Amino acid sequence: MTDKALFIAVMALLTISLIATYSLSTFTVLYYGYGDFHFFTKQLIAVIVGVGAIYLLSGIDPDRWFLPIGFTIFIVSFIAMLFMPFMPESLVKSVLGAKRWIHIGFISIAPVEFFKIGFVFFIAWSFSRRVIHHGKLPLSDELKIIAPYLFVLGVAIVMIAIFQKDLGQTVLIAITLLFLFIMAGRSLKLFAFFIVLGLLAVVVLILAAPHRVQRIRSWWSTVQDGFLGFFPSEWVSYLRVPEVKEPYQISNSLNSICNGGYFGQGLGDGQFKLGYLSEVHTDFILSGLSEELGYIGLFLVTSLTLFIIARLFIIASRLQRSDYYLFTVGVALTIVFAFIINSYGISGITPIKGIAVPFLSYGGSQIIANCISIGMVLMISKKADKGLSKTDSDSDRQRAAKEDKKSAEDLRAPYTRHS
């Protein structure tokens, strides 16, 4: 394995996930009458499958398998999400009007988790052929180049935000795409254009769903005093909403974090997991861990996550092929934004979006999908430019330099021009 440090960090988070799943699912197990190891066993199976995927993918040749695997993930997950709204209830149960999981026997699959990885692959593959080689262009020409990607994003928004009622995943995918535009050498004016367009789209999606409007109002009522001071006085009366009770989940999440202190109440001794936080082993796992392991435990989880992200960017910086580079950066960005969205949500900084913490939250689909992405990164990391050994001849060095020169120039030229 080419990057053992990355693999060890992922394994450490997966191990913490197993411990947290067993400890934090206490109330849910008792409430539904499950066995003590119900969630732990399912999570353990997902971890075993995920680690197996990492081993398998990291050992194969990327020049032969990267494209077939990436396209398979993208196409299969895309088709699955496309047909989910039309599948029978026996396969896809509707929860509050949303169909997010495909049930096959005792297995539940969330296609959107795999679609995120497939989407990143598709964007990386396509950008390396249509976007990254263009120099500085007018905004109108840049819009023409990226129009097909906006169409794909629009279809994804319809499938995820409207049919599955999952705005959080839509925001994550859109932000990742936006930053990949910049990493592919597009201009900052295009970035600003899509920031405005994205904010407008989010507003429309929020206004189209009453439950989202209520969630935003509840959140804004708790933070408005800290923001209204920055607005003109004549705006304040329009922006202020009546004080409402702090959202139940957010209140208990903050109390759970505070109750943990620096060193925590002890593993298994948390109180807020006992019915005060619903499904604490999923979206609120950071709150539950903070109470039981304290700020020290939260610091450990955050450090491991940041280390994984750093390793991914280091690997990306050594890759010469632009599709490999963009895919690795895309994987890092999905982990970054998922962690930020979740941690900001449980702390009340932003509304809760229902995004899992990568490698940590309970959920087989997100565990396996993220492990597949790490396996693919480890697979292509074997092509990273580590330099030739001292035993290589001068002719070997010259030949290798010539082979890498063109792809390196294509990748780095846009940044040189923009700088």
Question: Could you please describe the fold and organization of this structure?
Answer:
The protein is 70% helix and 1% strand. It has one domain. By secondary structure, the chain is mainly α. The protein contains 15 helices and two strands. The protein has a two-stranded antiparallel ribbon. The C terminus is likely disordered. Helix 1 packs antiparallel against helix 3 and helix 5 packs parallel to helix 14.
Concise overview:
The protein contains 15 helices and two strands. The chain is mainly alpha-helical and 419 residues long. It has one domain.
How is the secondary structure organized here?
Blueprint: H1 4-24, H2 26-32, H3 38-58, H4 62-83, E1 102-104, E2 107-109, H5 111-130, H6 139-163, H7 167-183, H8 188-207, H9 210-227, H10 233-239, H11 248-260, H12 285-317, H13 322-346, H14 364-381, H15 394-418
Antiparallel strand pairs: 1-2
Helix pairs in contact: 1-3, 1-12, 3-14, 4-5, 5-7, 5-13, 5-14, 6-7, 7-8, 7-13, 11-12, 12-13, 13-14
